[in-house]
Amino acid sequence: MTTMLDINIGNDWDDFLQNEAAQPYFCDLMQFLAAEYAEKTIFPPKNEVFSALRHTSYSGTKVVILGQDPYIQHGQAHGMAFGVMPTAKIPPSLRNIFTELANDLGCQRPLTGDLTAWATQGVLLLNTALTVRAGQSKSHAGKGWERLTDNIITWLNQRERPVVFMLWGNDAIAKSKLITNGKHLHLVLTAAHPSPLARGKFFGCKHFSQANAFLEKHGQAAIDWQL
Hints:
Largest sheet: 4 strands, parallel
Strand order of the largest sheet: 3-2-5-6
Number of helices: 8
Number of strands: 6
Order of helices and strands: HHEHEHHEEHEHEH
Structural class: alpha/beta
Shape: globular
Radius of gyration: 17 Å
Helix content: 25-40%
Strand content: 5-15%
């Protein structure tokens, strides 16, 4: 099936995406995106919309970190939640994530906000919506991305090998209902969103050390969180 985005990403997500592409909601989403990319400035670039899936295969996923939608300023978004292009200034939410990492595991503060090194180790950096208009947060919410990303989480929930889900903020925590094997197989960690504007507690959640302890307990290599 022809879509306006390249859904042949070269790993075991391909079968999943091909199945989704045959669904009416996905066709509607592609029609919406075709008009948006033609008429407006949309982030990330079309070839990076599925970067999270391209860098982290289904079978290789160890940890899922769920974000909201891509960054809305030029030179930031490149298809992975919370991460930015190597040359971009580190955004406030990511600075807070790095602070928690330093407090939790003693990691040194990175000089870059590019999280590709996490993705290649099995950290799926998934946004709820994978595109956004420049300068307009949540502008592509409710257009179909949520159904796709819900289905991604559901598919991961069906895995027999355990996955750590880090759900930060109310929007992400709401997805916990999709993780029905969580009590018996997966690890679901929740906290406030790392944004400085969010209410609730993010600092001190120790999700990174908990994730590594869980992975090692289940015979998987820990994530090297140091960038």
